Amino acid sequence: MGFKEVVRMDENIIFLICGETGSGKSSLADYICDYYSMRQVISYTTRPQRNEDDTGHIFITPEEMDDFTDIVASTKIGDYYYFATKEQLLESNIYVIDYDGIKNLKQQDLEGIRFVTIYINLDRKTREERAVKDRGDDPMVFHDRSIAEYSQFMEMRRNGDFDYSICNKDFKKAAAVLTRIIAVEIVGE
Asked: Are 95 and 118 in contact (CB under 8 A)?
């Protein structure tokens, strides 16, 4: 029997997918969710929606953020907040999150959850090319976001504070590696 048929989550494992803007972390997370029928945290954010196809977050105003009492992971990038609730986390297997959010999340009292952190690595030039060409980002917006998140990912790499690192120069290869990591972590194959 193949892995896809035996996926069960007896243990509450949440795969934390992180990486700099444009590294392909959301594309890889979407692939894994489709492949294994896993559920991804759709986090809240106070940033504006990039375009109508931008469905990777729940967009709210900064004032609406005050209404949430069960925030378990939050981070600020530039002028915008990103966060998830405990309920979202407990109902999910995959969470695309930045390093500051991971540090915040791991400080919470969340017994019975095992986190596996997977860092998606890609050089800045390729990230910018993909973000501007494929996603339609404004080059200055990409630049500003890269600067805003630079120190947190430098700290993460310096500390080796991740379980796995995947180079996403080739999406198919990166997806295959991620698929294998999840198989190993869930069923020990």
From this structure: no
